[in-house]
Write a structure and sequence with these properties.
Strand 4 and strand 5 form a beta hairpin. The protein is mainly beta. The protein is built from no helices and 15 strands. A four-stranded antiparallel β-sheet has the order 4-5-6-7, with no helix packed on it. Helices cover 0% and strands 48% of the residues.
Length: 171
């Protein structure tokens, strides 16, 4: 994922390389290793670029999302777990605009999880085939699309009421 200022990227190692994720500059500068546990499945920067969520999976253990503080592209301190185990980030843009929550999955269920560690809130009317795309500007709804469908159907999903509205179809 790319930091909000566009200066840093959280990158997974290429296949066959040691499983050390890094924060890499988009221009000249020094890369910094992340202290991830296991394989990095995904990441999402919080607004302001001072923190990043790291979605990791250790062999034989449930996945865990960690919060890592970052200063000028360099990790500071150790990553700390946020939310319960076995949840997965919905994508690099899954953070709400206020930076307090993120869209995540557990099994076939979708949830709004809190960066502060409050209990996850189940989201209504999210189907197992739905994939999160992005938040609407009001932060109340999300755009979702149906995996495996052709044409690709994008819908606006109100995360409070579960109401779905067709937005577009893509070929």
């Amino acid at each position: 994922s790319i930091s909000p200022d566009g200066l840093w990227v959280v990158a997974r190692p290429k296949p066959g390389a040691p499983p050390i994720a890094q924060i890499i500059p988009t221009g000249p500068g020094q890369s910094h290793a992340l202290q991830t546990r296991g394989i990095l499945r995904g990441s999402a920067w919080l607004p302001g670029g001072k923190q990043v969520l790291l979605d990791t999976k250790e062999e034989g253990k449930p996945g865990q999302i960690y919060l890592q503080d970052v200063e000028a592209g360099e990790p500071t301190g150790s990553p700390r777990p946020v939310g319960p185990a076995d949840f997965r980030l919905a994508g690099s843009n899954s953070i709400t605009a206020d930076g307090r929550s993120y869209f995540c999955y557990q099994g076939a269920g979708a949830f709004l999880c809190s960066v502060a560690g409050d209990p996850p809130r189940p989201l209504p009317n999210v189907k197992p085939t739905d994939a999160f795309s992005s938040w609407t500007t009001d932060g109340v709804s999300a755009y979702v699309w149906t995996r495996g469908s052709m044409p690709l159907k994008v819908e606006k999903l109100n995360l409070e009421t579960g109401k779905r509205e067709p937005v577009m179809e893509l070929m």
